[in-house]
Amino acid sequence: MSNNPKCNCGASPAPTGIIYSCSGAADVGEIADRAARKISRETNVKMSCLAGIGGRVSGLLANASAAPVLVAIDGCPLDCAKKTLELAGFTNVKHVRVTDHDFRKGASPASDGAVDKIAAVAASLL
Amino acid sequence: MKKIQILGTGCPKCKALYSAAESAAKTAGIEYTLEKVTDIGAIASFGVMFTPALVIDGEVKLAGRVPTADEVKKLLA
Predict the structure, then answer these.
(1) pTM (2 decimals)?
(2) CB–CB of B63 and A65 under 8 A?
(3) Most B CBs within 10 Å: which of A18, A20, A40, A58, as the mutation test of the B interface?
(4) B56: CATH
(5) DSSP A100
(6) Cβ <8 Å between B49 and A58
(7) Which residue spans within A67-120 are E strands per DSSP?
């Protein structure tokens, strides 16, 4: 999450979207996490903490409500990030699943190439 | 006593939210305190990425837009 909030109405633009990652324990979860961080570094779509959505942290829920676009990257078909957002009431979420892109859970080290590929898929949805 | 905080660095929308909150609180006839929070670090401590934001008794109720006074009144209820 950004520690430098921008005002919608000031000179600095607010984020154009928020990206969440399952950040799961498996290799594909690591790819998801790093891809989300890459998007956050390189674009105005900023990563925010999925745990804050699960924990119903009011500031993070308000961010999700305010964001023009929500993106979730899940590592595997368990789709934990997408389901966490849905359970909090956020159903209009653009979704990327790492294992849908030629990565197999447990056999896909989080290489720079893998991260770049998934980040590109996510970026194509924005 | 409701504690109302407006998070924002002082732009016109932040001021509009302050006015809406003040109007709503007065109309509701409640006891309240109303505070502007303009420090970036203090704003970030709420986890907010979009301003202005409205905080009531420590809970961020909304962010990134200016609600009507009626909407704020409902949030104060």
Answers:
(1) 0.89
(2) yes
(3) A58
(4) 3.40.30.10
(5) G
(6) no
(7) 70-74, 93-97
